[in-house]
Write a structure and sequence with these properties.
Helix 9 packs antiparallel against helix 11. With about 650 residues, the chain is α+β, with helices and mostly antiparallel strands. Helices cover about 60% and strands about 15% of the residues. Strand 13 and strand 14 form a beta hairpin. The protein has a domain of about 90 residues. Strands 1, 2, 6, 7, 8, 9 and 10 form a 7-stranded antiparallel sheet that branches. The chain has a 6-stranded mixed sheet with strand order 11-15-16-3-17-18. It has a 3-stranded antiparallel sheet with strand order 12-13-14.
Length: about 650
């Protein structure tokens, strides 16, 4: 059965002089919107509800009179929670907040008042204890009754500020909060049943002891049973302590594993930095080689321009070489001619011609002109010919290649710089140390697990001995009519006690499974990482964790604000469904800081939350397109308006 807020009555509360806000519950819609600009009084409504329920725990008497705010320049004071305009005419003003809630046919009215009182020249607030009215009848123990409806340690589940959403992912970490969650689930009622049954068992045991005064054998068995019960109770206490140690060690291991996963990712980046540094060195060496190639090209830059001229020179030298070769051949022929007696024409060579030819040959041979010049010209021709065939290098390609290497170096530098920022504070030592810690913690868990198993075996063995003693006692008790009846009554009470123990274990496990199932279902709707997350799980009681598709467990501390809010929504829905008595959910500034995807996902999921949802929103939280999407599920829209002519005065009106 859903618990809903039906009416809020504010008198002289902050900007509201006498304001009644009524929520029409005769509807199948579950969303109410209280809309107003920043500073108009949305948060004042949330504060009023919290103060009405929990009093000084949320707003101190000192703050009621005069609240302090911090500015960038200095600490300043502003008016407290009493309606300012009436304080001026009535210094002893009284403020009050009344909250009407409904669950089925049950109507609850919770009220709290505070009055300004004077002590000398100083005013202080006299705050009353909350009154609790059930179906028109005033009830005592209001604090306990309020706590049974909306546990104070879990108030963040029901009333929260969207600006502080990052704080809520760890609200299930304390023992106090765990007890409050169990209270919502109704587990304490079953625990009380177990205690009551245990008291009945003790009562029958005391009667049996009185009836056994004349039976020595029965007395001895009861002494053994008492010792056995004491030993079993001691072992169970030890077992509970070890189980709590195991859960704590498991939580520590989760935290270490999460850090290890972070470090593993960072370690991969450290390794990548090493690879990039090696690649950088290789790129630098390649640039140096390209620069040498470019310098060589520039040194030979004139060759391509002279190539045509060099080719002509080489061709000319080749012609000259051929001419000299012909001369050389002619000289050889002349030498052969001098050796002969006759000329090639058949006439005899006369002495005059012979002497002339001999002198010319002698001159040529002494100068070595033909041989030396031929060798020099041929060598020069070969060099010039090689130069004329010089292949022009692709200098543009070399420059582009160098530019590419330089771009790669700059890109690598940026990646290395980014990785260094991300891995700041992480060392190789910590990387090695974290895996050592994991090994130690896993070993400690295994040892603790063995302790648990050993204690369970010891308890099982002791219980067998206990059952045997009980059997022997039953035989003795059944021999007497009076003790026979007491024995049967005692056995029945013991059976109920055992059943209560089993019921607690079953119900607790069933509630956790229901929370996980329903929270995972809703989480899948609101998260923007549906392909990464498998669902929500509870560890070591009710500590929230997110399970990834790959099996890794994520601590909410590492999530973004949007993902944290998605997780909180999912958990609240799961808790409400598991409890079977859904509480109202009021959110102040619920979506203003979220990205568009999370805004849309959460807005779409609100109709599926099995609770009354009240949104204290601005146009930033609910822009037109989101309001339009939500409108089919909105029961009412209340608008906060400023009072004309009155500074800091507001009224709330229902939008028609």
């Amino acid at each position: 059965m859903t618990l809903q807020i039906k009416k809020i009555h504010l008198q002289n509360w902050k900007c509201y002089e006498n304001q009644i806000i009524e929520f029409n519950l005769n509807t199948d819609k579950n969303i109410w919107v209280v809309w107003g600009y920043n500073g108009y009084g949305k948060t004042s409504i949330l504060e009023a509800i919290l103060w009405c329920l929990y009093g000084n725990e949320v707003i101190s008497p000192k703050k009621l009179i005069k609240a302090e705010i911090d500015t960038q320049e200095k600490s300043a004071e502003k008016q407290g929670y009493f309606y300012y305009h009436n304080v001026k005419t009535n210094p002893d003003l009284e403020l009050s907040v009344s909250l009407t809630l409904q669950r089925g046919k049950q109507n609850y009215i919770i009220s709290r008042t505070a009055k300004r009182a004077r002590r000398g020249n100083t005013f202080y607030a006299e705050v009353s204890e909350a009154s609790f009215n059930l179906n028109g009848k005033q009830k005592e123990s209001s604090r306990e009754r309020i706590d049974s409806l909306l546990p104070r340690s879990c108030r963040e589940f029901f009333f929260f500020d969207g600006e502080k959403i990052q704080e809520y992912s760890n609200i299930t970490q304390t023992q106090e909060t765990r007890k409050a969650i169990e209270s919502i689930l109704g587990i304490p009622e079953i625990v009380n049943l177990k205690k009551d049954t245990g008291n009945v068992v003790k009562k029958f045991e005391d009667k049996i002891k009185q009836a056994e005064s004349d039976n020595v054998e029965l007395q001895q068995i009861n002494i053994k049973l008492f010792q056995q019960n004491h030993e079993i109770a001691t072992k169970r206490d030890q077992l509970q302590t070890v189980i709590e140690e195991y859960n704590q060690e498991n939580k520590i291991l989760d935290d270490i594993n999460e850090r290890a996963n972070q470090i593993k990712e960072l370690k991969d980046k450290l390794d990548k930095i090493k690879e990039l540094n090696i690649e950088q060195q290789s790129l630098i060496e390649q640039i140096e080689q390209v620069n040498r190639d470019i310098a060589k090209v520039l040194e030979n830059a004139s060759i391509p321009m002279m190539r045509k001229f060099v080719k002509e020179m080489a061709d000319d030298l080749q012609t000259k070489t051929l001419t000299n070769t012909r001369i050389s051949i002619s000289v050889d022929q002349l030498r052969e001619l001098l050796k002969a007696d006759t000329c090639v024409c058949g006439n005899c060579i006369r002495e005059k011609e012979y002497n002339f030819i001999s002198q010319q040959l002698k001159n040529i041979e002494e100068a070595g002109i033909i041989t030396e010049e031929n060798s020099r010209i041929e060598s020069l021709r070969i060099d010039l010919n090689r130069i004329s065939k010089y292949k022009v290098p692709d200098i543009e390609g070399l420059l582009l290649k160098r530019d590419g290497f330089e771009d790669d170096i700059e890109e690598n530098k940026q990646v290395i710089e980014d990785f260094k920022k991300e891995t700041k504070g992480v060392s190789e030592t910590e990387t090695d140390e974290i895996w050592r810690k994991i090994g130690q913690q896993e070993q400690s868990l295994r040892e603790t697990d063995r302790k648990i198993e050993r204690l369970r075996n010891e308890i099982e063995s002791l219980e067998k001995q206990q059952n045997e003693l009980k059997r022997q006692r039953s035989e003795l008790l059944n021999s007497d009519r009076q003790t026979l009846i007491l024995n049967k009554q005692s056995q029945l009470a013991q059976g109920l006690y055992k059943a209560a123990e089993e019921l607690i274990d079953w119900y607790t496990e069933n509630c956790q499974q229901t929370i996980e199932h329903e929270a995972s279902r809703l989480h899948h709707l609101v998260t923007n990482k549906q392909d990464e997350y498998e669902g929500v799980i509870l560890r070591n009681g009710y500590n929230l964790r997110v399970k990834q598709i790959n099996g890794d467990i994520v601590n909410p501390e590492s999530l973004s604000e949007g993902e944290k809010e998605a997780l909180v929504f999912a958990f609240i829905a799961g808790l409400n469904l598991a409890s079977g008595k859904a509480a109202p959910l009021m959110m102040d500034t619920p979506f203003g800081k979220l990205d568009g995807i999370h805004q849309e996902n959460i807005v779409k999921s609100l109709p599926q939350i099995p609770s009354q949802v009240i949104l204290l929103a601005t146009d930033r939280d609910l822009p037109d397109h989101l309001l339009k999407a939500l409108k089919p599920n909105i029961a009412q829209i209340h608008k906060i308006k400023r009072l004309g002519g009155i500074k800091d005065g507001s009224v709330v009106e229902v939008e028609e």
